[in-house]
């Protein structure tokens, strides 16, 4: 049983349930322990008994405060709910992120890391594609693997309920990692918003929700409101920004709304009353990067292009010994000496494929492993790999800048950040930074330096492994990019 969180509706619900026993009571839009205690007091005053209460997280404040909320033990709380439609609305996200996006599962990951240590589970948010049973079954397996037997799920149809009741972990299903992906094109169009508004109003039949008859997809009232808000707040001017980088703009241990580009979007839109539409192009190899940009430009507008100089492709070419997966997915080792045309770093995938969402923290690397990594870099440097990698990376950057100049795109180069996975990596990163900084300055290209970010504690900006950025680092990057874009916008 769900009790409304609006005062008038709450009173009506409590009067209806007065002197009754309810097995589970769902408390919506919880943002603090005090709110839970307020509801418990109201339930007691109305002589309503229950087996459990399920506080539901449906806002950014609720998720941010969850660690504080669960610090207060409550024998009546066995799990917390998550309402993703209200949550999307609270962070002003449109179109919404649903269960087929990795961005959605980052929220679930955050819930897991807070709830699991307290032996608490989750009441999972409803799945709105009512006829997509294959996805639904795979999702149930995914949830089971994360939270175990105690996971609960809100169903919307009798068929979903039947599938849930008959669920067995041994049942065949499509691996869930194959079904979810990042949303890289974050542009919003008025056409998309108008389509949701029209579809909702045409199919709602005076209900609080709408179901598209053709696709059997439920449009929530929250997404309908978000679409109407977008149309009402539509700004006169739109700027299209393309960010070219690696995993940083989609980093899996940072919530979508806390990523640097979303922080940047909020600051730009607030300061200049313009709409900032963002697209992300990911690259791993030097050889294919420019082609991806050219192909995207054929069908889309780019006003600003931010090219991120990354540690990974640079350091990979510096290494003397390269570990990779061949075309058959087998692990292989190869010497890496580009000067002798032995260069498998640009031919094969890196060894470790990035998993969609990892719910168990990586184990720290051993001291011996770090020593071997340092030796691999130094051996590569002896064979000229460092010089080759520097020149190859700058050649790519120059070609991208040239493409921007030819297409009236304003280029910005985001410098390399410090990397501390081994003791030799900061030295190599500094070499790359100096190599780029001086050459781009001579060409009057905006270069956003990151190695000058100082902190007494390196863990303030990076995770324990010295590779992945922290929320604080994303915040700093957003500030730096805002300063550069602000200067460019004033001149345009």
Report the uncertain regions: none
Q: What's the architecture of the largest domain in CATH terms?
A: 3-Layer(aba) Sandwich
| Total of helices | 17
Q: In what range is the share of β-strand residues?
A: 5-15%
Overall pLDDT = 91
Structural class estimated from helices and strands: alpha/beta
Report the biggest beta sheet as strand number plus sense, adding barrel if it closes: 5 strands, parallel
Strand arrangement, largest sheet? 1-2-3-4-5
Number of strands: 15
Short description:
The chain contains 17 helices and 15 strands.
Structural commentary:
This protein has 492 residues and is α/β, with parallel strands linked by helices. The protein folds into two domains: 7-178, Phosphoenolpyruvate-binding domains (TIM Barrel, Alpha-Beta Barrel), CATH 3.20.20.60; 236-492, SGNH hydrolase (Rossmann fold, 3-Layer(aba) Sandwich). It has 17 helices and 15 strands. The strands form four sheets. The protein has a five-stranded parallel beta sheet. The chain is globular and about 80 Å long.
């Amino acid at each position: 049983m769900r009790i409304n969180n609006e005062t008038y509706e709450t009173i009506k619900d409590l009067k209806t349930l007065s002197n009754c026993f309810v097995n589970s009571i769902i408390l919506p839009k919880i943002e603090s322990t005090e709110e839970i205690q307020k509801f418990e007091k109201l339930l007691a005053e109305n002589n309503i008994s229950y087996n459990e209460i399920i506080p539901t997280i449906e806002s950014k404040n609720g998720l941010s405060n969850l660690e504080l909320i669960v610090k207060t033990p409550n024998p009546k709380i066995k799990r917390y709910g998550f309402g993703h439609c209200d949550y999307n609305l609270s962070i002003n996200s449109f179109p919404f992120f649903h269960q087929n996006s990795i961005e959605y599962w980052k929220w679930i990951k955050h819930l897991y890391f807070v709830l699991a240590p307290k032996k608490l589970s989750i009441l999972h948010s409803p799945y709105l594609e009512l006829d997509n049973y294959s996805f639904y079954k795979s999702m149930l397996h995914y949830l089971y693997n994360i939270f175990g037997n105690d996971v609960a799920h809100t169903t919307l149809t009798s068929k979903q309920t039947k599938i849930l009741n008959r669920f067995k972990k041994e049942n065949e299903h499509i691996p869930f990692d194959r079904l979810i992906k990042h949303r890289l094109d974050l542009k919003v169009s008025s056409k998309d918003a108008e389509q949701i508004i029209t579809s909702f109003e045409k199919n709602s039949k005076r209900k609080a929700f709408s179901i598209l008859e053709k696709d059997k997809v439920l449009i929530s009232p929250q997404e309908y409101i978000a679409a109407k808000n977008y149309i009402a707040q539509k700004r006169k001017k739109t700027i299209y920004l393309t960010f070219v980088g690696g995993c940083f703009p989609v980093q899996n241990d940072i919530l979508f709304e806390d990523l640097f580009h979303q922080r940047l979007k909020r600051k730009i839109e607030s300061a200049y009353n313009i709409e900032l539409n963002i697209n992300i192009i990911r690259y791993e190899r030097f050889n294919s990067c420019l082609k991806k940009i050219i192909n995207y430009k054929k069908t889309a507008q780019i006003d600003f292009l931010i090219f991120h100089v990354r540690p990974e492709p640079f350091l990979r070419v510096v290494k003397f010994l390269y570990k990779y997966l061949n075309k058959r997915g087998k692990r292989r080792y190869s010497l890496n000496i580009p000067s002798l045309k032995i260069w498998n770093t640009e031919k094969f995938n890196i060894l470790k494929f990035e998993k969609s969402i990892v719910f168990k923290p990586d184990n720290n690397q051993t001291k011996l492993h770090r020593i071997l990594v340092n030796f691999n870099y130094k051996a590569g440097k002896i064979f000229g790999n460092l010089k080759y990698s520097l020149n190859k990376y700058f050649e790519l950057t120059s070609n991208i800048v040239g493409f921007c100049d030819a297409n009236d795109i304003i280029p910005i180069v985001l410098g390399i950040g410090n990397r501390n996975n081994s003791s030799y990596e900061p030295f190599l990163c500094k070499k790359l930074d100096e190599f780029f900084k001086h050459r781009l300055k001579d060409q009057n290209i905006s270069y956003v330096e990151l190695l000058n970010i100082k902190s007494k504690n390196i863990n303030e900006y990076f995770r324990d492994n010295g590779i992945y950025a922290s929320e604080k680092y994303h915040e700093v990057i957003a500030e730096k990019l805002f300063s550069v874009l602000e200067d460019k916008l004033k001149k345009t």
